[in-house]
């Protein structure tokens, strides 16, 4: 008889759990339904209103989002995204240099700089590494999206320890120019800019 009571208790508990799960499922269905309705309303609004569609097209597909600026603002008000970055407060940067070159001349949409052999290249402005690799008609390229909203292309730089999406500081080591020649291209919103405004 005792065993029967325990089985009854078991079935009673399972029945209660089943009823509770039904109660919890109802709000989830409501959330899904509400989200679907909101999505459909937004899609209808986009379909009907061509100005809104043009605004989305321009600001999402044709404008660069300055993640470097967002990161800098976030760190200013909330601190570093990485909680362990505050542990290395006592360390000092080993490399903190300025760009030094022997000669500069216009080249394609940018500038060609003549530097010494095995020249160590400093980062010209803080930002986020958004591209590393070979670009057609340019060669080995590192692109840093700077905090000022300009993408700076460093071409001809090798032996870099950076990774894509690293946040880098002005004056840090970018890499090495082995051939004695490097190229810089300044770009904003897909348009190349005149290097003379940014390079002294």
Please write out the topology.
Layout: H1 2-48, H2 50-61, H3 67-78, E1 103-107, E2 110-114, E3 119-122, E4 127-135, E5 139-146, E6 151-155, E7 167-168, E8 173-177, E9 181-188, E10 191-192
Antiparallel strand pairs: 1-2, 2-9, 3-8, 4-5, 4-7, 5-6, 6-9, 9-10
Helix pairs in contact: 1-2
Quick structural gist:
With 200 residues, the chain is α+β, with helices and mostly antiparallel strands. It has helices at residues 2-48, 50-61, 67-78, and strands at residues 103-107, 110-114, 119-122, 127-135, 139-146, 151-155, 167-168, 173-177, 181-188, 191-192.
Characteristics:
two-stranded antiparallel ribbon; eight-stranded antiparallel sheet; Glucose Permease (Domain IIA); elongated; 200 residues; 3 helices; alpha+beta
What value does the Rg take, in angstroms? 28 Å
- Compute the separation of the termini in Å: 95 Å
CATH superfamily of the largest domain: Glucose Permease (Domain IIA)
Give the total of beta strands. 10
Largest sheet: 8 strands, antiparallel
CATH topology category name of the largest domain? Glucose Permease (Domain IIA)
SS summary, helix count? 3
Which structural class should the secondary elements be placed in? alpha+beta
- Fraction of helical residues: 25-40%
Order of helices and strands: HHHEEEEEEEEEE
In the CATH hierarchy, the architecture of the largest domain is Distorted Sandwich
Total separate domains: 2
* Percentage of residues in DSSP E strands: 25-35%
Shape: elongated
